[in-house]
Amino acid sequence: MKMTFRWYGKGDSIPLSYIKQIPNMSGVVTAVYDVPAGQVWPEEAIIELKALANQNGLEMEVIESVPVHEDIKLRRGKCDEYIANYAENIRRLAKHGVKCICYNFMPVFDWLRTNLHHMAEDGSFSLSYNHEEIMSLDPAALSLPGWDESYAPSELKALLDAYKGMTHETLFSNYCHFLEGVMPACVETGMNIAVHPDDPPWDIFGLPRIVSCKEDYERLFAAFPQNNNGITFCTGSLGAGRDNDLVQMAYDYAKRGKIHFAHIRNIAYEGDYGFCEVAHKTEAGSLPIYDIVKALVEGGFDGYVRPDHGRHIWGEEGKPGYGLYDRALGAAYLNGLFEAIEKK
Length: 344
Known about the structure:
Elements: E1 2-6, H1 16-20, E2 25-30, H2 43-55, E3 59-64, H3 70-74, H4 79-95, E4 100-103, E5 115-119, E6 125-129, H5 131-135, H6 153-162, H7 168-189, E7 192-195, H8 214-223, E8 229-234, H9 235-239, H10 246-255, E9 259-264, E10 266-270, E11 274-278, H11 289-298, E12 304-307, H12 325-343
Parallel strand pairs: 1-2, 1-12, 2-3, 3-4, 4-7, 7-8, 8-9, 9-12
Antiparallel strand pairs: 5-6, 6-11, 10-11
Helix pairs in contact: 4-7, 10-11, 11-12
């Protein structure tokens, strides 16, 4: 297991020197953030990111993410050009030591929350999701925290219109078309690509979700059985789906070598669909974090791990979900679990 930490590049409020001080921290998970989706990343930008990490004693072996352009998901316009560019990014990243790329295939929204500053009883703040509030919104006049700046209203409406009538089968077919285009570059370079599950793992605003459960994974692996084709096992995203058996999935897919990357975080259920993000410790929420880590270890998992979304604690301000303090506590907790379970 290699412990890693999400870092948003030179604009991140958390210095690399602070990340290095977290015990057992091997490297950062980052990306080139100023290049639009679908375009080729300049090699000098990749080199600069890696140099910054290395100068602080950290590796850069995981990229999260190389975004998948909406034209690819819709299989329209410049779809094939963007797929070719994606394959080129895989080759460039592999050339500079990257071994794993986390990505997603979620239409329009790659995550949804209704509150970025949910206040807990202890005074900490975290992200939360209220399903009833989401369902009451008009997709044509959408206003969501964290997304208002992502698309202009006209752009968002045009995207939602483009997806009207999109079925799960059509989206999966488009996903397979994407993988057919990039898998040769993965096999050629040894790059592992790890798809992130849908967040949350159910259809939203009529947009189909196709990476949400065991059945989705089995269909994906049947279509593309290559070892390079794997998953990012995100406990918070998968765990929002009450029917997902995270412990069994963790063991089975670790045993099959399909978990290339693990995002480990905890959530507390609220009603049938709602949840709020909490501290990483098992007892803090609804997910059996200890049992999940135990299943990963017993399944032979040896990939990358990062503490996922953290709360804002001790007066810290910054990017919601990505402060330093609570994620550092999460890393320490996960380090302890892995060490104890591996030694036992």
